[in-house]
Amino acid sequence: MTLVQMQPPSNVTPAHQTAADAMDTGALQVCDDMTIEVALSVMAGARTGHLFVCDNDGLCTQLVTQAQLTAVRDSLAYTDRVQLRDILDGGGPFTSPVTTTAEAEHAALDRRLAALPVVEDQDSARGVLAH
Length: 131
Fold this sequence. Notes:
Shape: globular
Strand order of the largest sheet: 1-2-3
Distance between the termini: 13 Å
Structural class: alpha+beta
Organism: Streptomyces malaysiensis subsp. samsunensis
CATH topology: CBS-domain
Pfam family, one: CBS
Protein name: CBS domain-containing protein
InterPro entries: CBS_dom (IPR000644), CBS_dom_sf (IPR046342)
Mean pLDDT: 74
């Protein structure tokens, strides 16, 4: 999986480009009962730096990054039983597919995020904006 380049398709002007136009739709979704070690292995195998975490109803609750998971694994409180749901901090931030890329990029920079999940109204993961 490669990072999304923030260049618009030829039929969309930059001022009107939306998150849906620029997102990477290949983001992996995993269940929140997955352990940290397994999640890191999935990331390594998929050559990606982030995963969507979904609850038992299939709703996207958060995006986790390799850096976050590595920090948890390297902490003194870590055990091999720690699951993704144990480290989630309440979800978000997310953006809508109709948000302009400029707005989404601004939101990601304000929060110092490397990637911003794009979700539908029902919290269904559509893709990731990454820079």
